């Protein structure tokens, strides 16, 4: 019986070791915005998409949320921020390499909200895979970059919302 208990005890440590080396980064472009202006807010459809994103990631054990300092990205991150009581951290969209290094150093589940040009770029930096650019009409993609023992695996999902 004692060898069995010892095996269970040792497995619990190896499981914690594995879990500590595994985390996921979720990247999205901001949701649908209102008319073109310098800093537009989300449209009604965009607000629905942001709420849906919060529901999708509700059980993803998100520990941090990052957004650029634009109304549309902050509003996309807000429902999850409110639901999980996580303060949104701002990042500079022109410093994606620094952000990628920061995220890899933190090694925690996080949501990163960006733009049509920055989100695929950040996914590529993190995963080291080719990522297709987004058009101005692409709002439904959710990128997951999962790190398992420092190896990145990129999965691209589509949010099931049609507006």
Mean of all residue-level pLDDT scores: 89
* Helix-strand pattern: HEHEHEHEHEE
Please indicate the percent range of residues in DSSP E strands (runs of 2 or more): 15-25%
**Shape summary:** globular
Please give the share of residues in helix. 40-55%
Task: Tell me the radius of gyration.
Answer: 18 Å
Quaternary structure state of the chains depicted: single chain
Task: Provide structural commentary.
This protein has helices spanning 2-20, 44-56, 71-84, 96-106, 118-127, and strands at residues 22-29, 64-67, 88-90, 110-114, 141-148, 151-158. A hairpin with a 2-residue loop joins β5 (141-148) and β6. The protein has 163 residues and is α/β, with parallel strands linked by helices. It has a 6-stranded mixed beta sheet with strand order 3-2-4-1-5-6, sandwiched between helices. Mean pLDDT is 89; it is low at 1-19. α2 runs parallel beside α3 (71-84) and α4 (96-106) crosses α5 (118-127).
Please outline the helices and strands.
Layout (H helix, E strand, L loop, with lengths): L1 H19 L1 E8 L14 H13 L7 E4 L3 H14 L3 E3 L5 H11 L3 E5 L3 H10 L13 E8 L2 E8 L5
Parallel strand pairs: 1-4, 2-3, 2-4
Antiparallel strand pairs: 1-5, 5-6
